[in-house]
Amino acid sequence: MQLKKRGRIWWTYITNPNGGRREFVTTGCQDKKAAEAVAADLERRAVDPAYRAAHEETIAVATERYLSECKAQKLSEKTIVFYTQRMRHILRLFLDIPLVKITRDAVIQYGNTRQEEGASEHSIWKELQTFKSSVQSCHCCQTIQHTNH
């Protein structure tokens, strides 16, 4: 990994996984240690398709895939509506972040926020169970489990 400083920001060369060309990309970091960590992550994404897929899989993508799979299984319309309603809360509070960024603390914070909004514990449990099912349906689920620290 080769780091170069341009102004106050550190940059690195990464091999593009699609074309094989080397690209000069920003790490967005002013601190060299932080830039090294970002550059290492960018490099790993460039060479490891499973790692890249796991880090690009977002909550919105997982949700859409799960709902599509439910429709393909010909679940009842009421079940689909139920899952959709539950996932709206997940998407609203977690936003559209990569699945690998969701930690235990983030889930606890989600539950606390929903309780503050007046949701019952049972409703929160149903939302998290629906979310769990959508994550388990991901193609990169095993990769996510192994790369999430």
Q: What's the Cα radius of gyration?
A: 19 Å
How many helical stretches? 7
Strand order of the largest sheet: 1-2-3
Topology as a string of helices (H) and strands (E): EEEHHHHHHH
Q: Estimate the strand proportion.
A: 5-15%
Sheet with the most strands, sense and barrel status: 3 strands, antiparallel
**What is the helix fraction of residues, given as a range?**
55-70%
Describe it for me?
The chain has two domains: 3-47; 57-147, DNA polymerase, domain 1, CATH 1.10.150.130. The protein has 149 residues and is an alpha+beta fold. The protein contains seven helices and three strands, in the order βββααααααα.
Task: Provide the descriptors you would attach to this structure in a database record.
single chain, 149 residues, alpha+beta, DNA polymerase, domain 1, 3-stranded antiparallel β-sheet, 7 helices, 3 strands, elongated, disordered C terminus
Task: Give a nutshell description of this structure.
The chain has 149 residues and is of the alpha+beta class.
Detail the topology: elements first, then pairings.
Elements: E1 3-6, E2 9-15, E3 22-29, H1 32-47, H2 49-56, H3 59-72, H4 77-94, H5 104-116, H6 121-136, H7 141-147
Antiparallel strand pairs: 1-2, 2-3
Helix pairs in contact: 1-2, 2-7, 3-4, 3-6, 4-6
